[in-house]
Backbone:
């Protein structure tokens, strides 16, 4: 009997095989005309392109690191969910943890949006338990601004949170 993994493997393998045979048997003139027409279009459309980077590399790096952490943790929890040997209690705890991670990520995005709308600053927010770490992309290091950001974030919660604000440029 064929299980799901074998069926997926056979399906994907046959798709790759059909596409590779199609590519090999495709007339070479078609490939050449497509490539040369693209090159001609690019030469005709020589325009200067200005690339403006809105967000600092530090914020992007922090987001990527956070997303990788969360993805690996979710993958581990999904392995528990899909494992036939796991008990119902373990599966329930894994499901609740995945749900909690998604909720935390949603909160982080909500706070980042709130900071962006209120103070017009790019930020990265990391929530871990009772601690909220905020990294602001600004060369201005103002205690008053940091206090206002902390108050804004705290206004979203009933219980007291430990909030840190760090300015980076």
Residues:
């Amino acid at each position: 009997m064929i299980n799901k993994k074998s069926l997926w493997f056979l399906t994907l393998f046959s798709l790759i095989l059909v596409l590779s045979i199609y590519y090999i048997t495709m007339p070479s003139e078609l490939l050449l005309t497509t490539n040369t027409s693209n090159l001609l279009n690019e030469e005709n459309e020589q325009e200067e392109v200005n690339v403006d980077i809105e967000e600092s590399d530090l914020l992007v790096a922090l987001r990527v690191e956070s997303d990788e952490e969360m993805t690996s943790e979710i993958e581990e929890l999904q392995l528990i969910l899909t494992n036939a040997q796991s008990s119902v209690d373990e599966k329930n705890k894994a499901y609740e943890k995945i749900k909690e991670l998604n909720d935390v990520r949603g909160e982080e995005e909500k706070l980042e949006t709130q900071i962006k709308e209120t103070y017009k600053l790019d930020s990265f927010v990391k929530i871990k338990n009772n601690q909220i770490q905020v990294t602001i992309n600004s060369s201005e290091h103002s205690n008053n601004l940091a206090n206002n950001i902390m108050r804004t974030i705290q206004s979203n919660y009933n219980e007291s949170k430990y909030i840190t604000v760090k300015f980076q440029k």
